[in-house]
Amino acid sequence: MAEPTSRRNEPRLRPAPLLFEPAEAAGDPEHFFDLESIDDPRALLSRATELAQAFRAAADRAVEFQAIAAAQLADPRRFDRLTSADIAERAEWTEDYAKKMVEFGRDLLRGGM
Fold it and tell me: What pLDDT sits at residue 76?
């Protein structure tokens, strides 16, 4: 898993909308957001790039929420607080990474996301 990085001074990218696919299309391994139906390589590159940026932005945002949750779970004011080892086990991280994520989450909480 990648190390968290702070991007407070960078503007958030506005990703392309991720349209949900019908169940029958999602079950087809060759079907991916209708990209296979785009014949024009320029349009294909454009839409594939939009999707890649959207997934990247979604992944970055999800990592921020993981960090916030880790910080909240490790909060010493909680009677049911978890140790870094417990958080690491739940999230399938190393304990070192869990500690970094707790700190990253605390930074995000202090900065108000």
Answer: 94
